[in-house]
Amino acid sequence: MKRVAQTIRLRPERREEYLELHSAVWPGVEAALHRANIRNYSIFLHGDVLFAYFEYHGEDFEADIATIEADPETQEWWKLTDPCQQPWPDRGTGDQWSDIPEIWHLTEPGTE
């Protein structure tokens, strides 16, 4: 299992719109995430900073992410959510969200 954390800023003037969209995420968008082996996906908000966390349970992360990117309903969803977000300057080429490297993880006793 791969843990992924990401961050992006929320445009203050689009805050209510973004929160409203996420109060009822489209079932097709959620289904695309499940098909791509994404589990335990959460988005948190602190001030105007969004933090996302999810777990990937598949075998080919890049291929599974590509299926999400190719999903027509997800593409329509992003047309609504992307304008609400303001990427960090260091986000990398073509990425909306910035990946955050994991530096520590509490493991269960005896699983080291």
The residue-averaged pLDDT reads 95
**CATH-defined topology:** Alpha-Beta Plaits
From the N-terminal CA to the C-terminal CA, the straight-line distance is 15 Å
The proportion of residues in beta strands is 25-35%
Helical coverage, percent range: 25-40%
Low-pLDDT regions: none
Radius of gyration: 15 Å
Main beta sheet strand tally, sense and closure: 5 strands, antiparallel
Principal-axis shape equals globular
User: Strand-and-helix sequence, N→C?
Assistant: EHHEEHHEE
Describe this structure in words.
By secondary structure, this protein is an alpha+beta fold. It has a single domain, classed as 2-Layer Sandwich (Alpha-Beta Plaits), CATH 3.30.70.1090. 33% of the residues lie in helices and 28% in strands. It is built from 4 helices and 5 strands. It has helices at residues 15-22, 27-35, 61-70, 72-81; strands spanning 2-10, 38-46, 49-56, 85-86, 98-100. Strands 1, 2, 3, 4 and 5 form a 5-stranded antiparallel beta sheet that branches. The longest helix is centred in the middle third of the chain and has 10 residues, at 61-70.
Short précis:
With 112 residues, this protein is of the alpha+beta class.
